[in-house]
Amino acid sequence: MKKLVYAQLDEVLYHEELDNGLNVYILPKEGFHETFATFTTKYGSIDNTFIPRGLVEPVKVPDGIAHFLEHKMFEDEEKDVFYAFGEQGASVNAFTSFTRTGYLFSSMMQVEKNIETLLDFVQKPYFTGQSIEKEKGIIAQEIMMYADNPDWRAYFGVIENMFEKHPVRIDVGGTIESITSITKKDLTICYETFYHPSNMVLFIVGNVDPEEIMRLVRENQSAKKFPAKEEIIRHVVPEGTPAYVAKRTISMPVSMPKCVVGYKEKNPTRQGRDLLKHQLSVQVVLDLLFSPSSKMYERLYESGSLHDPLSFHYTAEWGFGFSVISGNSNNPDHMADQITETITTYQQVGFSKEEIDRAIKRRIGVVLRSLNSLDFIAKEFTRYQFNGMNFFDVVSTLESLTCYDLQAVLRDHFTPEYQTVFIIRDERV
Amino acid sequence: MDNVKITTHDFGDIHLHLWKTDQFKTTSIMLKINSALSEETVTARALIPEILQSGTTDYPNRTMIKQKLDDMYGAVLMTDIQKNGDQHVITFRIDVASERFLLNKVSLLQEALLLLHKIVTDPCLENGVFVGEIVEQEKRALRQRIQSIYDNKMAYAAMRMTEELFTEEMYRLPEYGRVEDLDVLGPNDIYHVYKQMIQHDRMDLFIVGSFNEDSTQEIVSSLYGGKRFVQEQQIVRTWKKPVEEKVVFDRKEVKQGELCIGYRTYTTFLDDDYIAMRVANCIFGGSPSSKLFMNVREKHSLAYFVGSKLEAHKGVLTMTAGIELDTYDQTVDIMKKQVDAMQQGDFTERDLEQAKGWLINQLYGSINTPLGVIELAYPEIVEKRRLSVIDRVKKMSSVTKQDVIRAANRWELDTIYFLTGGGEQNEEAGLCTIR
């Protein structure tokens, strides 16, 4: 077991790669009552074309299957998984994103037993035809819930605009039609390919003894048999071409029109330190341009064009990346123009040293605050790991950013051919 | 396990509550200002925190305040407005990074206390009242915020349910105010409500994090030590007994129906039975192994989200589910059957222990953040009925099956609300390809 010390943040992290390939990380935190554990596979909605374990030809599986599989993992032959965790004082949950499927619990007692339950239920699939059919009804309601949510529609609308072929453009949940076609065989293929321990990370944070927990995990894993480690061949092509569609508008009932502007990443294959630095630079530039203390926000707020802060963030994984800036405005076209104009102006004049220092300080504050939440650490840590980055390098990387780094991002990331605009308005009014 | 140690000091008419701990990477300051909910003040009070954040004498606009906060290592100022039963609570919160993690050592806590005091007590004025332009801007923003609740169908249904269920109680008023009041409120009216607030409302200041206790007390006493004329609020414990069940349908353009059912429990957090009531709610609809989850979702595939929750101050239990528009009758029927099952004691000792474990876990989870600690302590501090975490756990552990059955038998159906389709239909524009 390796021990990694992050002195500035007062954190110590333990790591070990087990014989079956599973990576285990433990972050002891004194004073906290709850322990969080996440058990995550590097498998999400974008992994829809791949060579199944043991075969040679690639297959394409139905949209939404990673999320469907997440739901179905809670099925167990003997016991109700929710109930079992509940009895052990834990609450369990799961999520599916573009690139990951994670299972997590939080508990203040019987932490060791809960870790075993987590490992055991995720490593023991149980699918029956009847329970698969039943799940289709439940997920159909989940899809309907999102369909009535304009923010969700706006988010996927702008992603669809940006990407022509990359499966990031497909809703994580799939469609009612696509999930209807899912079979037991499809689920088994996906499970066998992506839930091998060597494609997964177990992360535990809380008031725990790292030695003891590691021993428990080692024992649990060595008692199970897994096929040999194999590289997974994914047939997803990185997409760094200009935006697929420049502008699109849809109509649905909204209290005020929504405007989303996206900038697609040109170089979507960064990993490790390179990606960490790039991601933080884009985030700081977005803060400089659009945060509530920016000049643009002040102008739009005071003129009554905007009533609430803009939301913005940058997302990047291997193969795709984008910035999204969104807000509600009675004049969404004007808002999109203002966003473009702000960027163009800053591209000409640059940022001042004072503005940059303030923005970096602000980001450091945001990061430190987020480290208060074990829940947040538990969910984020694995995303960094899967992209070769270290979550605890964030503060020192932010402190190392220079004017030059930020000006370069401002110039290269925000260019017209890579921009797209997506608008939702209620056309009855 | 109980390391939450809040000490209270009274200065003039402010109650200061301190919890010194190294557990967090930030220090949180929270000021809570409390008064009775009323039709006359609800909308003005919803505007006040927004107006105060828009300028002080020293920092006369939002951007200057924001820049000051950014300079303090991204300190964050947040305001919130909530209902604690029939009381209307305004919250100001500033979080600052703990100095021990920064390269340059600066006294962020002191700066934050000074800034907060300025924001609350030294607003930017014009002719002795709030600045007209700021007031107009904040009225516009609030109007939009109220209207945008409709974009979140669950929140919209919950708001409508509250209006329908509490028609004769002040709790019917939404904490964020009403659009119709915005047309008539001017800088004068709002400033008058603000003055009343500063003079008469109860104020509680919480500080959670690592700090020097003596110097912190000194600063607070010098800032807030003056005498005010505080009117303490009494919790209102009168409720209307439902004569017959009320059913309300709202027809809108939606794909999914939102069903809310409200039962009176006649039990608030001040009652001894409240803990048994929480256990009853947990078995009934408060967790993924609950009756509602197992029957409405797992057995009949009627919903993705389904559950129930208690309103701690008002003695009401509400259940919600997102369902197909045409499964209303079936879902209501199944939900009512689960109520019967609870009242007849149709659950096992194992279910009981499981629910207690879940709630205890949730309790410990909630005190893992500064905000959680404060939100848990505040209503009890106001009502002078503080329970330690250990006492809560003890009480929870001793709840019996009989206690739960007794609690469930107090439930009385009051209102059923359904947000359903059949409103104006609108074909989506041809370009829309999502789903």
TrEMBL record, chain A:
Residues 63-170 form the Peptidase M16 N-terminal domain. Pfam families: Peptidase_M16, Peptidase_M16_C. This is Zn-dependent peptidase. Residues 181-361 form the Peptidase M16 C-terminal domain. One of its GO terms (molecular function) is metal ion binding. PANTHER family: METALLOPROTEASE, ZINC-DEPENDENT PROTEASE. InterPro entries: Metalloenz_LuxS/M16, MPP/UQCRC_Complex, Pept_M16_N, Peptidase_M16_C. It comes from Croceifilum oryzae. It comes from the Bacteria.
From TrEMBL, chain B:
Residues 187-356 form the Peptidase M16 C-terminal domain. This is Zn-dependent peptidase. Transmembrane segments: none annotated. PANTHER family: INACTIVE METALLOPROTEASE YMFF-RELATED, METALLOPROTEASE. GO terms for molecular function: metal ion binding. It comes from Croceifilum oryzae. InterPro entries: Metalloenz_LuxS/M16, MPP/UQCRC_Complex, Peptidase_M16_C. Coiled coil: none annotated. NCBIfam families: YfmF_fam. SUPFAM superfamilies: LuxS/MPP-like metallohydrolase.
